[in-house]
Amino acid sequence: MLKSVFFHGKTARIHHLWNSGAIKPVIYNGCHHSADSYSLPENVRLKFSKFSGGSVDLTKDEQSGIAQITLNQPQHKNAFSGKMMLDLFDAINELENWKSGKGLLMAGAANTFCSGGDLKVVTNLTDSGEEMSSMMQNALTKLSRLPLISVALIEGVALGGGAELTTACDFRIMAPKAKIGFVQVHMGVISGWGGGTRLVKLIGHTSALDLFSTGKIINSSTALAFGLVDHVVEDGENAMEAAKEWLSKRCRGHSSVTRSIKSMVSHAGTEDVQSSLNHERKLFSKLWGGPLFLEALRKNIKHKS
Question: What reaction does this enzyme carry out catalytically (predicted)?
């Protein structure tokens, strides 16, 4: 419940519940600051669409329930153009409505992940930092909350915004010769896409501070030691095929179960304990006594190896 709003030193008392819809999300400079309520302003879409180049391609396999997002601007190491930012935003919105999905593989074209923002965007939108940050933070927050188990396949390099993007996925798999770096310090900025907040949660205060303050680019073995990546592909192994197999092993269950597992774990990471327990109970209750559970009982699956 929103108790009060302050305007020019005066307090306006609000007597309606936030959830009633009577109170609208607070907006600064045209940008919503809530991932759940954010709506991309048309003027921002128009502004960023002018910086073309590359694409973000989404494919969905209905049979396996696994989607793939490919960052595709290999001539610039898959750096994000304005158009690509919009493509990613729209692709994630589409995946939110994919009811049969179970998994998502995030990868870059031509055996490299992403080198951050395209120089053309960076140099021409120096006055649009808040708009870009709002759009990309929203997109990556939604990505992290998708009811899909997500994996970022890091080949080649993942630098700056590219490194931030990997932190929005549930897992990170790295090719043995790949490199990753939160290099924003060299550009006189910090992370703008939410990667700082997520990195602290992933690897802790000290390690995140080390990586951001030095801007160092680390290899796969160092990333594994930091706890930044979950698996390093073996030398000589096809990284894409290895990542697909790794993800498939975690998406073997029925979509309703896999999506419930992801929802349960995501809720536990962002909500208080009681809220998380309530959410877990509701998810469990929907599955208990359901057709999948009854079929498993009939087959006595619990006691089979």
Answer: (2R)-ethylmalonyl-CoA + H(+) = butanoyl-CoA + CO2; (S)-methylmalonyl-CoA + H(+) = propanoyl-CoA + CO2; (2S)-ethylmalonyl-CoA + H(+) = butanoyl-CoA + CO2
